[in-house]
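Researcher: Can you fold this with flavin-adenine dinucleotide in place?
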Amino acid sequence: METTDVVVIGAGFAGLVAARELGRSGHNVVVLEARDRVGGRTWTAPALGHDLELGGTWVHWVQPHVWAEMTRYGREIVRSPMAEEAYWLGSGAALRKGTLAEFTDLIDDGQRQIVADALMMIPRAVDPTVGGIHEQDQQSLQQRLDDLELDDEARSANESVWVGHVNAPLNEVGLSSALRWASAVGGHWPLMHEASATYRVVGGMSAFTAAIAADVRGDIRLESTVTAIDHDDTGAVVTLADGHQLRAQRVVMTLPINAVNTITVTPALPEAWVRSNRERVASQGFKVWIKVRGRLPRFFAYASGHHAISVLKSEFVEEDHTILVGFGADHSALDLTSVEQVQDALRVWRDDLEVIGVAAHDWMKDPLSQNTWMTHRPGQLTRDLRELQQADGVLHFAGCDTADLWGGFIDGAIESGLREAHLVSGSLTK
Ligand SMILES: Cc1cc2nc3c(=O)[nH]c(=O)nc-3n(C[C@H](O)[C@H](O)[C@H](O)COP(=O)(O)OP(=O)(O)OC[C@H]3O[C@@H](n4cnc5c(N)ncnc54)[C@H](O)[C@@H]3O)c2cc1C
């Protein structure tokens, strides 16, 4: 049987970074990736006449792990367009149009009240299960918003902004997800918005992950789907869909929580993995790219948490067309391939837009991810995170779902890859 020091399962940011570090520490590493490409939930694909990010896109210098990688690989950022116009819904869902500054004023009170709790609930964002969060982790983001007693206009606006962030129905997502982000930026809500959706990586995410992959001293095998792991104190046998087997001293799994049950693990995965996989995490939405005819003024548009598309903004403005990007809480609310359905969803703001193309990847339907960017259900953070980070003998767990700081983000994926590479390397060289 083929043998190696470490098998890393998955070539997203977490797996690539873990493999790079382990290879640099002198260990033999084999990365097994089911897709025909590296990058996982980041993927720059040609569509609608542009190179579009179908998955993770925006990065920021307040995200320390991703920024270190940006520096290391000489990546630069470009700003997504500043909006000239904003649309939102007023009382009785009447359409409002104004400036971005007017919209910012509208949501300011709601945003401030939510993030005001952050530094008490999660005083150190790098230690997100310590603090008042233990008493509040059962609360959903919707419950917290309801407590604020905002008027209809401010309420819809705040709800849609949060849907854009957490990618889930707000009654299903824990307040903790909002508080973690806010804590990571010292409670400054405009910086939280900037950090999560403003600066793209020049050249695209796929070029970024290709640069990391080229730096891995080890073997990256694409189209290599792992179906089983059998492990004991002496090591693990990893079985692929084609029957090939590898024996390794350590295994690093980087699958998202929602997808870990696609591999048969013996003895079974720790209870926290089984439990959270069964429950699934909160995020369940979508990101869709929309091509509309004509050159439009750059705009942001917000509906409510209950509309199919809650947030819409222009991303590329050309002479004869504009490319918009939309986000909604429920991927099953919209056929992401249907021009007609997307056209209908835009009518909440404007009926003058002619949709001429749509592009998206439904990450919820993709068996290798079954999730977008992870946000927790109420209670999951404080109940499970620490256990999800624990190795089970020779089996280690990385992936953005297990990160301390920017859980669910690219930054968190990198953090987790570094963390596990350090632990595995230390245990192998003892
Ligand atoms: C639509 C969308 C928008 C996002 N926007 C942002 C953003 O703007 N900024 C940001 O920071 N983050 C964003 N994210 C989140 C970000 O993309 C993820 O946090 C990050 O890419 C996760 O990396 P990972 O390595 O932890 O997991 P993944 O990238 O999911 O990597 C896991 C890998 O394991 C592979 N795999 C699964 N099962 C098997 C198997 N059985 N055998 C072998 N391989 C397997 C998968 O194919 C995958 O390549 C977004 C995500 C989505 C989907």
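Model: Folded with flavin-adenine dinucleotide in place. The chain has 14 helices and 20 strands.
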